[in-house]
User: Fold this.
Amino acid sequence: MRVDPRLSGYLSRALDHEMAAVQQYMSQALLCDMWGMSDAARQMQHEVEEELEHAQRIMRFMLARGLIPARTQLPPVRPGRSLQDMLLIDRELEIEAIHLYDEAARYSQRIRDQEALHLFAQLLQEEQQHLASLDGWLQELARQGVANG
Ligand SMILES: [Fe+2]
Ligand SMILES: [Fe+2]
Assistant:
């Protein structure tokens, strides 16, 4: 089956994003654990699992279309020096994903590829939820900061 070249580009970028997100959240989970912040470590580990599941979903789609996942380079991790710093960095990552999936979903709609549209629209919605949960977490930290200060 011939795959639309621009669609296959979006799939590759999507896989890059998800693998980078796994590496990022995994590093942060380990750092939180080293800093003795076990609740934050657990929450970061939960993000690792969600992003890993996204990567699997994209790979399954690629393989079903005869595309071989072959990403070889990931951007360096930006670990952050405090929990708040980490969450601000992660916000940027999620916003990039939202832009990517929004564009990919609109393109899929334009070429009338319903399966690709479903994949990207679902991912878009889940990344929007990730962003909302990061924002909730940041607000909670800010409240605690006020309470402690
Ligand atoms: Fe993701
Ligand atoms: Fe995400």
